[in-house]
Design brief:
Length: 286
C-alpha cells in the first residue's frame, strides 16, 4: 500500500483533528489514544474506504467520505488496544512498540478503546448532522449501520469471541474460516462497502464488493498464518497452521485469490486499484 502517501496524509490529518490537545485533568486518555493511533498502522481500512468511494463516485475530493474512513480506523485501533489486554491476547508488544496497557495501564487502555469506539460514532454523527439532502442522509445512515454491524456482535466482536473460546478439540478449517471472516474480514468489508454506499452504488455492486471484501479479509489473515508459520506451529496460537501445513495454506490462498478475481469481474467499473490492492495484500512479506 506504498503508493498512497497523499491519501494517508489526508486520513492522518483528520484522525488527529478530532482528538483534543489540552492539559485538562483527563489528558492521559487523549495521549493514550494518540499513542495507539500513531503506532505504525498502514491505514489499510480507511484507504480502502476512500478508494471504494472514488471508484463508484468519480469524486477525488473525499470530503463526503473522510468521516466514515476515520471512524473505521478508530474502530480498528480500539479493537487492537482491547485485543492486547491481559484478559484477551495478553500481548506486550505491537508493531515493535509496547502495547497501550504497558505504556499506560490496563484501566486507561480499556478507556482508550471505549473512547475510540465512541469517537467513531461521534465523527459520523457530526457529518450526518450537516447534511440536508435526503438521499445523502439515507446513505449516511445506511453506511453507519453497516459499519457498526460489521464491528459488533455479528462481526468483529463475534470473531474475537470465537478466538478466545476456541478449544483444540473444536478446531477445523470451517471454524477458522468463520473466525477470520468475522474477526478480520468484517471490518475490511465494512470499509469497502461504506465507501460504495456513500458513493451511491447499486445493490448488485455492493453485493459484489462484499464478496471482494470477504475474500481479501480472509486472505489477509491466511497470509499472516503463512508468514508466521514457523513460530505458530511451535506455539499454542489458534491459527490455521494448527491444522494445515504451509503448502496447504498456500493452496488455500490461491483459492481465495480466485474468489477475489471472480467478484471483481461482476463489477462494471474500473476496479484495477482493487485488484492491485488484493495482489499487494496477498504477496506482502511483512
Amino acid at each position: 500500500m506504498s503508493d498512497y502517501e497523499n491519501l494517508i496524509k489526508i486520513i492522518d490529518e483528520n484522525l488527529y483533528n478530532s482528538i483534543p490537545n489540552t492539559d485538562d485533568y483527563q489528558k492521559i486518555i487523549y495521549e493514550s489514544i494518540k499513542y495507539s493511533l500513531s503506532s505504525g498502522g498502514k491505514r489499510i481500512r480507511p484507504l480502502l474506504t476512500l478508494i471504494s468511494y472514488k471508484i463508484f463516485s468519480g469524486d477525488n475530493s473525499y470530503e463526503k467520505i473522510i468521516p466514515y474512513a476515520c471512524a473505521i480506523e478508530y474502530i480498528h485501533t480500539y479493537s487492537l488496544i482491547h485485543d492486547d489486554l491481559p484478559g484477551m491476547d495478553n500481548d506486550d508488544m505491537r508493531r515493535g512498540k509496547p502495547t497501550n496497557h504497558k505504556v499506560y495501564n490496563e484501566a486507561v487502555a480499556i478507556l482508550a478503546g471505549d473512547g475510540l469506539l465512541n469517537l467513531a460514532a461521534e465523527t459520523i454523527s457530526k457529518r450526518l448532522d450537516k447534511l440536508t439532502d435526503l438521499d445523502e442522509i439515507k446513505n449516511g445512515i445506511k453506511a453507519m449501520k453497516y459499519i457498526f454491524t460489521c464491528s459488533g456482535i455479528q462481526g468483529m466482536v463475534a470473531g474475537q469471541t470465537i478466538d478466545i473460546e476456541l478449544k483444540e478439540s473444536d478446531m477445523s478449517r470451517d471454524v477458522f474460516e468463520s473466525m477470520y471472516r468475522l474477526k478480520t474480514g468484517a471490518l475490511i468489508r465494512a470499509a469497502l462497502v461504506c465507501g460504495a454506499i456513500i458513493a451511491g452504488a447499486d445493490d448488485s455492486e455492493i453485493i459484489a464488493l462484499e464478496r471482494y471484501g470477504n475474500s481479501i479479509g480472509l486472505a489477509y489473515q491466511v497470509k499472516d498464518d503463512i508468514l508466521d508459520y514457523e513460530s505458530d506451529i511451535n506455539s499454542k496460537n489458534m491459527t490455521l497452521s494448527r491444522i494445515l501445513n504451509k503448502d496447504e495454506l498456500k493452496d488455500f490462498m490461491q483459492e481465495i485469490y480466485q474468489e477475489t478475481l471472480n467478484s471483481l469481474k461482476t463489477i462494471d467499473r474500473n476496479t484495477n486499484e482493487l485488484l492491485e490492492i488484493a495482489k499487494q495484500l496477498m504477496n506482502r512479506s511483512y
